[in-house]
Amino acid sequence: MAQHRRSTFLIALALPLAVVASARPARAIIIYDFPIFGVVNTAQTARINAVLQNSPEPDRPCPVTLTFFDEQGVTIGDPSIFEIRTGAAVHADFIGDPGLRRLDRVQVRAQVTIGDSGIFSGAPAERW
After folding, report:
1. Strand, helix or coil for residue 111
2. Predicted model pTM
3. pLDDT for residue 12
4. What is the CATH code for 25-127?
5. 91, 49 Cβ separation under 8 angstroms
6. I need a labelling partner for 66 at 20 to 30 A (CA). Which of 22, 107, 111, 127 fits?
7. Pairwise CA distance, residues 52 & 56, whole Å
8. How far apart are CA 23 and CA 31, in angstroms?
C-alpha cells in the first residue's frame, strides 16, 4: 500500500515537471505558490529568493516577479520585478504591513512568477 502511494506521488510530481520541461521558455508563465506562514509585524522578516541556474536562452534575461500576499490573497506592497540572467540571484523582503499594529502576527504567502504576462499575455500560467 505504501509503495502504491509513493508511486502515485512520484507520478503526480513528475507530470508537472514534464509539462514545464516541454514548454518553450519564451511562452511559459510559471507561478510557484508557497504555503501561508506567519511573521510578527515589523519584528520579523520574510525573504523569498530566486536564482536562475540553467537558462534555456543564456543570452536573454528571464523576467521574474516576487510577491507577498496576505491571508485574503491581497498583494502586500508592490511586487518586486527583476530581469535575471544565468547565475544571478534576486530577493524580496517582507518586513511588515504598515496597515497593522506593530508586533501583531501576520499571515503571508510568497509567490514567484517566471515570465511576464504583459509580454506573454496569451500564455497559460502553470501553477505549482
Report:
1. strand
2. 0.68
3. 34
4. 2.60.40
5. yes
6. 22
7. 10
8. 14
